[in-house]
Amino acid sequence: MDGHVVVGYDGSPESVAAVRWAAGSAGRLGAPLEVVHVWGIAGHLDTPPVSAASAYVRAGAQEVADEGAEVARSTAPQLQVTAVLDDGPPARALVRRAAGARLVVLGRHGSARLSGVLLGSVALGTVQHAPCPVVVVPRTQVDRASTGLVVVGVDGSRHSLGAVDAAGLYATGAGARLRAVACWQAPANSRSLAAWLRENPARSASDLAAQHAEEALEAAVARLRERYPQVEVEPQVEEGPAAHVLARHAEKADLLVVGTRGRGGLAGLVMGSVSQWLVARAACPVLVSRAVPD
């Protein structure tokens, strides 16, 4: 996990929380931090101002970037921090800055509705296209003390394995312990389930669901112990809706890691329903990994 950490800053309380979390994480990872403020006149950043008014606007935008960098320095005084002014649509600019980065960090803004879940358009666009993991930080993160715990949701899917790798990399760099959580629920009654039960009278559908969760967790833990041996791993299987179970664990975590889509994801969505719900509502920052291992 080489490279820098990128954080978006626009002066809002949500972006203050994001910068503070990014500064702390960059310090733990030993990575430099870029605090990026995006102003809205695409194509004018590197050209001479066309008027005194545009020069004034650009100077004000630079002040916002510098303000964000000062927030980072006050949080982590030893950290290497750069204030960056970029232009164009914010999500596009942040994706561009993410090339070669370890993480992109954003504050959680609830300005766009997707499948009944509030998720800011900048966060959504960045998650969809960034080449590295994206962390979305809630405003309430400002006063939370570190717990040294990273939680990752596991379901046996390829996207889940990508989340496992991202969690292992982050926990290794941050010196955190890692809790891998697999959830299961009894499947709803259906014609296919009834046929399966007739053919397998000795086993219940709940037993099968629990077994699948345990197998997914075993595979994830084996991967973590092989690839990230320095990390202390806590395996856990729980019954219940994945979003609610993971949200409960997030209450005592520094970071929750999820894949963009798992076995419960909805076809046609870039983010699965569980990931969407957690990004919008979890008490701690949520890292979304788009990686799909071979």
TrEMBL record:
This is Universal stress protein. Residues 4-138, 150-290 form the UspA domain. Transmembrane segments: none annotated. Belongs to the universal stress protein A family. InterPro entries: Rossmann-like_a/b/a_fold, Universal_stress_UspA, UspA. It comes from Cellulomonas xiejunii. PANTHER family: STRESS RESPONSE PROTEIN NHAX (PTHR46268), UNIVERSAL STRESS PROTEIN UP12 (PTHR46268:SF6). It comes from the Bacteria.
